[in-house]
Amino acid sequence: MATATSSKPSRKTLYIAVGVVIVIALIAAAVLVVMNPFQQQQKEIVIGLSLPLTNPVGIHARKAAELAVEEINAAGGVRLKDGVYRLRLVAEDTNEMDPLIPVDQGVAAFKRLIEVHGAQVIVGGVRTDVVVAQTQLLSQYKIVYLDIESNQGIVEGKVKDDYQNYKYYFHFFGGGPKSSAGPLIIGFLQRLKDMSAKDPKMPDVSKVALLAENALWTVGLAGRPAGNSTFFKRLADLGFKLVYAELYPTTESDFSSYLAKMKAQCPGVIVFLFSGPPGIIFTKQWQDYDWSPCKKPIVFGPGLLGGFSWFWDQTQGKAQGTIWWPSTVRVQVTPKTVEFIDKFKRRYGETPNTAAIDAYDAIYVLKDALERAGTWQAEELVKALEQTDYVGVMGRIKFSRENHGLDFTYENIYRYFGQWQNGELVPVWESTWPEIKNLLIP
Amino acid sequence: MSAVRPSHLAGIALLVVLAVLPALPGMRALLFPLTLTNIMATLAIAWNLLFGYAGLLSLGHSFFFGAAGYASAILSKSYGIPVPVAMVIGAAVSSGIAALVGLPSLKLRGHYFVLVTLVLPAVAYQLTNALDVLGGHDGIFGVPPLVRDSYAVYLGSLFLMLASLVASAFVIRSRLGVEMISVREDEEAAKALGVDTPRVKLYALMISAFLSGLAGAYWAHLNGVISPSVYELEKASMPLLMSVLGGKGTLLGPVIGAYVIQTLFESLKIEAIATARLFVFAAATFAIYRIFPQGLMGVLRRVIG
Amino acid sequence: MAEPLVVFFYGLVTSLIFALYSVGFSLVFGVARVIDAAYGIWYTTAAYLVYALVTRLLLPLPVTVVVVVASMVALGISYYAVLVRGLQEKVEMIMTTFLVALMAQYLIVAIFTNFPWSIPALFPGSTQVLGVSLFNQQVAAAITAFLLLLVLWYLVYRTKMGLAIRAVAQDKEAALLMGINPDRVMAFTLALSCSLAGIAALLQAPNSVISPTMGWPMLTLAFAVVVLGGMGDFFGAIIASFIIGFSYQLITNLVNPLYSMAAALAMILLVLWLRPRGLFGRSLE
Question: Which single residue of B58, B81, B136, C265 has CA 20 to 30 Å from B193?
Answer without folding.
Answer: B58
